């Protein structure tokens, strides 16, 4: 058999803004020509689209599409191999030899010529055709704020089931509206028990996801990838670099110590963190009444947490949202269509949410039903729906499962989920057993780094995708800060060169005092005064550079860490811009010495020597 990798990637596209003629062509069998010319010819194909549209417009608007089963064979779960990137080939299509002649290809002389030349021609033609159809290429998608970014290679063709979280995943809330109301209810509850909250207001710019609360010190900290604290804020006041260094030194943020550290995993954490940091200020200035008891920063955090928990448990917040969902939910018409593509591609779709049945049904109806075709409802998309899942315990242990049997939410015990069913509780292992799909055949998509992404991977080896809406703003900020970053990098490089010369002169001075020769002829030829003056000048330049670099580096910041997820993106609807058969390849991870390859790719021959003085 011949795999489709040898013949290029074939995809069936849903009707979008491209012409109906183009869509009809892509749904029809592709006739592959001998390799004396390209398989795909952009101009010819687009001309054929127009002819095909004119011929078919008077008949039927529907198209039968490619009969995959008669033309291709599908790699089964029992006969898959592992490719050179370590991914299973399950779900890959293979061309049946007996059909090659029907495609106009001599099976004994298929794709003549060096594969490098064949691939170059086909890639150029494919790129032209994708551009003419208005479809972004994989490379251009990676340069888009709506791209899907890959941390670990993932073959979507080998995925049999895709599970989704709901809140901030399948539906995106207006953060200012949703978290603002959560904050209001929290502060009302704090006021009822005597906390001074007058004059305080929700400030969404105070906190971002990915920061960590130090409950012992009343600080909000930002740690690097090794766990060292790089920045910190006490209450609502930013601490200086010196204060951070004196307070934390070489202490590591250890998220396993939950009694001290609280990681802001999700956007739901914003309201709680804002309330806590503001109340830290009130504790510090002594305005919290003594009758509330001897409060430290830990006790204050518990008090704020209880107040917010009451807002959720008492149901006022969710009742308000359910009564006016249009005020709190940002609609995304593309999202249901992305899931429909996946379902029609044979994926089992799962909804696994901690929200209760009534809230889930109301919000999904509002967010999905109006965008689905042919009077479909949101339930029609999913093979299994699980509410009140109790994640992360859902991934860690077994809980009883109940089937929701009435619209009012009445339930009965059950032991196995069935296709089309609606359930409460249960466990991930029950889902695997019910579908007979296990481990890395399942992709789970969620917004919570720990509850959704980390635990499903650690306990079940599910593949994972993180939804991070902030990516779109981050990406735009990176684009707008290119000039700033280029200037910053240039200054840092200048300081590195100047600093190296200063260090060489300092070493020469040190050796001179010991009666030993300097390591460079230039340093040897300098007398003591010239050596001292040169060092003083260089030191002043470096100090002035530091004064320039420090605020620029502070403004530049660091990116949010998404290392737990196999892939990550800003919203689920971004899958619509890819196919359900996409092979996501992670970018090459480089070490510091790999910069040599950069120079070799940029400069040839002796030009490398002009740019790089010395390499080991």
From TrEMBL:
Q: Which UniProt keywords apply?
A: Hydrolase, Magnesium, Metal-binding
What does the record give under GO molecular function? Answer: hydrolase activity; metal ion binding
* Record keyword Secreted present: no
This protein's name: 5'-nucleotidase domain-containing protein 4
InterPro entries for this protein: HAD-like_sf, HAD-SF_hydro_IG_5-nucl, HAD_sf
Mind telling me which Gene3D superfamilies this protein's record contains? HAD superfamily/HAD-like
Keyword Glycoprotein (UniProt): no
Q: From which organism does this entry originate?
A: Prunus persica
Member of which family?
Answer: Belongs to the 5'(3')-deoxyribonucleotidase family.
What NCBIfam families does this protein's entry cite?
HAD-IG-Ncltidse
């Amino acid at each position: 058999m011949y795999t489709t990798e040898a013949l290029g990637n074939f995809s069936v596209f849903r009707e979008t803004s491209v012409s109906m003629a183009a869509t009809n062509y892509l749904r029809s069998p592709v006739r592959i020509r001998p390799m004396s010319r390209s398989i795909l010819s952009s101009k010819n194909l687009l001309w054929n689209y127009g002819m095909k549209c004119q011929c078919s417009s008077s008949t039927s608007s529907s198209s039968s599409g490619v009969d995959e089963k008669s033309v291709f064979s599908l790699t089964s779960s029992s006969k898959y191999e592992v490719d050179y990137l370590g991914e299973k080939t399950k779900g890959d299509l293979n061309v049946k030899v007996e059909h090659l002649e029907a495609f106009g290809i001599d099976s004994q002389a298929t794709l003549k010529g060096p594969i490098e030349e064949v691939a170059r021609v086909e890639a150029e033609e494919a790129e032209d055709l994708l551009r003419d159809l208005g479809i972004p290429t994989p490379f251009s998608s990676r340069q888009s704020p709506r791209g899907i970014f890959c941390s670990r290679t993932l073959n979507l063709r080998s995925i049999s089931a895709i599970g989704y979280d709901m809140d901030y995943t399948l539906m995106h809330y207006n953060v200012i509206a949703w978290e603002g109301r959560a904050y209001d209810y929290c502060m009302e509850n704090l006021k009822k028990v005597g906390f001074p909250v007058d004059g305080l207001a929700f400030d969404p710019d105070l906190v971002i996801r990915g920061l960590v609360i130090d409950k012992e010190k009343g600080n909000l900290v930002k740690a690097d990838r090794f766990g060292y604290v790089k920045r910190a804020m006490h209450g609502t006041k930013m601490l200086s670099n010196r204060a951070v260094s004196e307070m934390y030194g070489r202490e590591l943020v250890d998220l396993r110590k939950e009694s001290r550290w609280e990681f802001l995993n999700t956007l739901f954490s914003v309201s709680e963190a804002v309330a806590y940091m503001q109340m830290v200020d009130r504790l510090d200035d002594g305005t919290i009444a003594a009758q509330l008891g001897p409060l430290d920063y830990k006790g204050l955090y518990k008090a704020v947490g209880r107040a917010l928990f009451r807002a959720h448990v008492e149901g006022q917040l969710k009742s308000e949202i359910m009564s006016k969902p249009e005020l709190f939910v940002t609609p995304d018409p593309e999202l249901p269509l992305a899931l429909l593509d996946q379902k029609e591609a044979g994926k089992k779709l799962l909804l696994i949410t901690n929200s209760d049945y009534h809230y889930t049904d109301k919000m999904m109806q509002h967010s999905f039903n109006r965008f689905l075709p042919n009077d479909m409802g949101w339930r029609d998309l999913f093979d299994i729906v699980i509410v009140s899942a109790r994640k992360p315990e859902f991934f860690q242990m077994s809980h009883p499962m109940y089937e929701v049997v009435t619209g009012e939410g009445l339930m009965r015990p059950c032991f196995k989920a069935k296709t089309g069913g609606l359930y409460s509780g249960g466990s991930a292992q029950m889902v695997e057993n019910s579908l007979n799909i296990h481990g890395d055949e399942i992709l789970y998509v969620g917004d919570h780094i720990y509850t959704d992404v980390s635990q499903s991977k650690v306990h079940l080896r599910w593949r994972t995708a993180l939804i991070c809406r902030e990516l779109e703003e981050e990406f735009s900020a990176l684009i707008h800060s290119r000039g700033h970053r280029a200037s910053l990098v240039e200054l840092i490089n200048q300081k590195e060169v100047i600093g190296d010369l200063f260090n060489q002169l300092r070493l020469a001075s040190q050796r001179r005092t010991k009666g030993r020769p300097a390591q460079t002829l230039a340093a040897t030829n300098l007398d003591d005064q010239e050596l001292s003056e040169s060092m003083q000048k260089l030191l002043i330049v470096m100090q002035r550079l530091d004064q320039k670099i420090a605020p620029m580096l502070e403004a530049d910041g660091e990116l949010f860490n998404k290392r737990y997820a196999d892939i990550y993106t800003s919203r689920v609807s971004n899958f619509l811009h890819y196919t359900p058969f996409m092979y996501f390849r992670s970018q090459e991870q480089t070490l510091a010495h790999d910069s040599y390859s950069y120079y070799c790719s940029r400069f040839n021959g002796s030009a490398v020597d002009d740019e790089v003085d010395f390499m080991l």
